[in-house]
Design goal:
Shape: globular
Helix content: 25-40%
CATH architecture of the largest domain: 3-Layer(aba) Sandwich
Number of domains: 3
Largest sheet: 9 strands, mixed
CATH topology of the largest domain: Rossmann fold
Strand order of the largest sheet: 6-5-7-8-4-9-10-11-12
Bound molecules: thymidine-5'-diphosphate, magnesium ion
CATH class of the largest domain: Alpha Beta
Length: 456
């Protein structure tokens, strides 16, 4: 007990509790992320229960028949898919993203779509005045959508209003601006955000409303303050994209009511976010004549195949420690692939700067991209362009062997749809039918290098 009360410092990056302030969190290594907060025992959710008896809980069995949750579709298909097929009543959803990435725009459009589909929707802005939100709605052509609007940050007032209004959907923009008067801390602090999220999630469960919380992300890529919020909600969606690009991707990183890893793709336009039904075509549309350093990766995002272009540039380095710059991929993965190329294929990258990029602002996290990364690197290094009608996929193991990856058929089908006629895939890939695409199966990276870059 005494110990818990002493833990009054929390890392805003990983949520770890500390006994004293420190410049660096030893749990996650983040700098300057530790803030003081009221001891946990003073928080609303952790008051002791006391001796009073509760009521008995009705127990069921695993075989109990449960009707699947009735979902409400917004008609924005990219959004509905990421939600797992529509909005589930009584669910709590967190939408995270960098400031300015387009969260408010997305959610205002979502509110209007759900409202037009017959749901009662309430949009509460803690960041903008009602007039500003109305102006945005006008710009987006949504002024006539039956959405109730309020600009408020006082949580007590909001909950009282919600209890009376009982809307089907509430959008809180953003959770960092909410202020609960029973917590002595500034808005945006860990304890405020945690208390506000707890109250709003409880409201969702109690009243059967769906609640969408907007959360800003810190530059380390976490929802500012509380990762705690991620645990409290049913669904966590990230809205992401490169600032200079017009594509925005809504990605499910956690979903109790649907598959995680699902993505919805949007394009920013003057009139708001437009849905992109065929992302592969869009990501590849910037691709000009086939040039050295470019490889097309046939990937899977959630339930959908998506083709992306991986670009590499390899140049002699003036630096003692050559540069390794990666955008849209894991930099650790690049190091591994470079090491495998050097150790297993005898192709050194020492003394060479390496730049790697996924075109269009897409982010790829599948290990299946390994072979496409290696192909782009080799193509750049040898200055040999790969065939323009070829897609590549496969995981590279440390031994240099190519490992088969899931959904090979779906990847090929998408590639053929977009006009590709050949593919390189690992041996043992499960490919039954003839997809009208010529597949070259290879056992390892050495074979790949030999066949594709024999002249180099
Ligand atoms: P906004 O939705 O306010 O971002 P966030 O809520 O994540 O901070 O959008 C930021 C700016 O981008 C805003 O000035 C509007 C503009 N924008 C467009 O012009 N078109 C679009 O499709 C989107 C998404 C945003
Ligand atoms: Mg906003």
């Amino acid at each position: 007990m005494a110990k818990a009360a002493a833990q009054s410092f929390t890392c805003t990056s990983c949520g770890a509790a500390h006994g004293k302030w420190a410049g660096r969190c030893d749990a996650c290594g983040a700098w300057n992320s530790i803030v003081e907060e009221a001891p946990l025992s003073a928080g609303p959710a952790t008051k002791t229960l006391g001796a009073a008896k509760g009521k008995r809980i009705a127990l069921t069995t695993l075989a109990t028949e449960e009707t699947p949750p009735a979902r409400a579709a917004s008609g924005m298909e990219e959004l509905d898919r990421v939600l797992g097929g529509g909005l589930v009543p009584a669910s709590a959803i967190l939408v995270g993203g960098d400031p300015g990435i387009g969260k408010s725009t997305l959610l205002l459009q979502a509110a209007a779509s759900f409202a037009r589909a017959g749901l009662s929707c309430l949009y509460i802005s803690g960041e903008e005045a009602s007039a500003q939100v109305r102006m945005r709605a006008g710009r987006l052509g949504l002024a006539d959508a039956p959405v109730s609007l309020a600009a408020e940050t006082n949580l007590r007032d909001i909950l009282t209003t919600l209890d009376a209004a009982r809307p089907d959907l509430v959008i809180i923009d953003s959770i960092q601006t909410m202020w609960a008067d029973h917590v002595e801390a500034a808005p945006g602090s860990v304890s405020q955000v945690r208390a506000a999220a707890h109250e709003l999630v409880t409201f969702a469960k109690r009243r059967g409303s769906a609640v969408i919380l907007v959360g800003h992300v810190t530059k380390e890529g976490q929802i500012a303050g509380p990762r705690v919020v991620e645990h409290m909600v049913d669904t966590v969606l990230y809205f992401e994209g490169e600032r200079g690009h017009q594509f925005r991707i809504l990605r499910a990183v956690k979903n109790r009511f649907g598959p995680a890893d699902e993505i919805g793709v949007f394009e920013m336009t003057g009139g708001g976010l437009a849905e992109v039904a065929n992302p592969s075509a869009l990501f590849l549309s910037e691709r000009g004549q086939s040039s050295p350093g470019s490889a097309v990766f046939a990937g899977i995002e959630g339930t959908r195949p998506v083709l992306t272009e991986i670009q590499a540039l390899v140049a002699p380095s003036p630096l003692g420690t050559p540069r390794r710059t990666v955008v849209g991929l894991d930099s650790g993965r690049l190091s591994t692939i470079l090491a495998v190329l050097e150790a297993r294929c005898g192709i050194p990258f020492a003394g060479l700067d390496v730049f790697l990029n996924v075109a269009g602002g897409m982010r790829v996290s599948e290990p299946a991209a390994d072979l496409a990364v290696a192909a782009a690197l080799l193509s750049a290094r040898e200055d040999v362009a790969l065939p323009p009608d070829m897609v590549v996929f496969g995981e590279i193991s440390l031994s240099g062997a190519l490992r088969p990856v899931g959904q090979a058929e779906n990847r090929l089908k998408e590639a053929r749809k977009l006009g590709f006629s050949q593919a390189v895939a690992p041996d043992r890939s499960k490919i039954d039918g003839d997809d009208g695409i010529r597949v070259r199966k290879m056992p390892d990276l050495v074979t790949f290098v030999g066949e594709m870059f024999a002249a180099g």
